[in-house]
Amino acid sequence: MIEQISSTQLDSFNNLILIDIRDEISFSYGSIPGAVNIPVEKLKQNYSKLPKDKQILLCCKSGIVSNPLAEELRNLGLNCANLSDGYYGWLKNHIEEQNSDAKVIEHSIHKKFSKSLLSKFITAINKYDLIQPNDKIAVCISGGKDSMLMAKLFQELKRHNKFPFELVFLVMDPGYNPQNRKIIEGNAKRLQIPITVFESDIFNTVYNVDKSPCYLCARMRRGNLYSKAKELGYNKIALGHHYDDVIETIVMGMLYGGQIQTMMPKLHSTNFEGMELIRPMYLIEEKDIKHWRDYNDLHFIQCACRFTDDCNSCNPNGEAKSKRQEIKMLLQQLSENNPQIRQNIFKSVENVNLNTIIGYKHKDIKHNFLDEY
């Protein structure tokens, strides 16, 4: 009975039942073609339904969580092996095998995805006045689908824009493991994005922080991006937050922060004088980003953070990993009954009626409806 199979051996096996045990959100970011998503807890509840006459292969992010689970199934008499290097191992090999087809991908942006991606990208830039002549913009790439698409959209804008501006495609390595960095570099090469990589030790700094390490890491990463961009002579950084990120932030602020706020399309930096942050993906929906990714057979990392290197993104306890994921799942449920939910939430922060607000803050000064009652 086979116990371990590596991603490079997959093609030599026929009629495998490939089960990806990561949580649904992680699976939605990318998966091996043909894989069936059965999260850990759901799989444990349905052991009896698994076929005993088929070769089963379990897959998680890095092969760590799936390994003991595969052993447990073998002890129950099932022919079950573990994908030893996990989804990320397959992803690394898949990217290395791909030829550069950037022209085909660029063509899809102009044709098939012109309305859902390129048009909304340009609309956001014009609506929120994100780019001015002679701007020098550092396009910040994390390695995920959003920032990689943003880079391609900026390249298209640069080719056809009516006024001059400069771009640098900036990748910060805060302490990635070699495999994750190779995946990022491999995707950039395939998409013909000329990335500039610089290193920091942020992961080492926050790794042993118990309270809100992700928040601290995000703040430090942004500060490092500002600093590097300014060092290179650039006046703006561009981040790949999209329409759904904005909506989730609004709901999170209400339910967990007790406040009404949103993710702004552009901001002045408070710590780096003369620098701005812009979000040109502001009007692009995540479902359309995923459609572009899948249409072009692209595969990106979900998170290259050291906190997930031990495969905890497989979510073995069956719980939401973060408040943002909880909100994402809540919005999915609400949208099943009312498809306008997301659009209405987005519009709500554009249509604030101060006559019906009990209190609000402006430039750090609190105001109350009783002030003018």
Task: Describe the protein.
It is a single chain. The chain is an alpha/beta fold and 373 residues long. Helix content is 42%, strand content 14%. The chain is built from 14 helices and 13 strands. The protein has helices at residues 24-29, 40-44, 66-75, 86-97, 102-110, 114-127, 145-160, 178-190, 202-206, 213-231, 243-257, 286-295, 323-337, 341-348; strands at residues 4-5, 17-20, 36-37, 56-59, 80-83, 136-140, 166-173, 195-199, 236-238, 266-268, 276-278, 359-362, 365-368. The strands form three sheets. It has a six-stranded mixed β-sheet, sandwiched between helices. Helix 4 (86-97) runs parallel beside helix 8, helix 11 packs across helix 13 and helix 11 (243-257) crosses helix 14. The longest helix has 19 residues, at 213-231. The N and C termini lie far apart (78 Å). The relative contact order is 0.13. Residues 316-320 have low confidence and may be disordered.
Distance between the termini: 78 Å
Separate helix tally: 14
Identify the overall geometry: globular
Walk across the major sheet and give the strand order: 8-7-6-9-11-10
Major beta sheet summary:
6 strands, mixed
Structural class, by secondary structure, is: alpha/beta
**SSE order, as H and E?**
EEHEHEHEHHHEHEHEHHEHEEHHHEE
What low-confidence regions span 5 or more consecutive residues with pLDDT below 50? 316-320
Portion of residues in beta strands equals 5-15%
Helix fraction?
Answer: 40-55%
| Total number of beta strands | 13
Mean pLDDT: 90
Radius of gyration: 23 Å
